[in-house]
Specification:
3 helices; 48% helix; elongated; 0% strand; single chain
Length: 77
């Protein structure tokens, strides 16, 4: 049986391993893709400035976030 707290007054705890998929936000996926291709935060910001005239991902519209993510995914190492 897994670890049980001292002075446990209730029924034995039920421990189950739950396998599942953790979905990352597009913002997190952008960071993952930037790391994959070796970009720094500064390189990402430069790209946003040149292509969207924006300083950060938080300023992008949903469509722009999708476009930026697609661009990063298409880049080879």
């Amino acid at each position: 049986m897994p670890h049980r707290r001292q002075n446990w007054a209730g029924d034995d705890p039920c421990w189950k391993l739950i396998a599942g998929v953790i979905e990352l936000s597009n913002s997190d996926l952008i960071l993952v893709e930037m790391k994959r291709i070796g970009w720094t935060i500064k390189q990402g910001r430069n790209y946003l400035q040149q292509n969207y005239n924006k300083q950060s991902r938080q300023q992008l519209s949903n469509d722009e976030i999708e476009e930026f993510l697609d661009y990063l995914k298409a880049q080879q190492l």
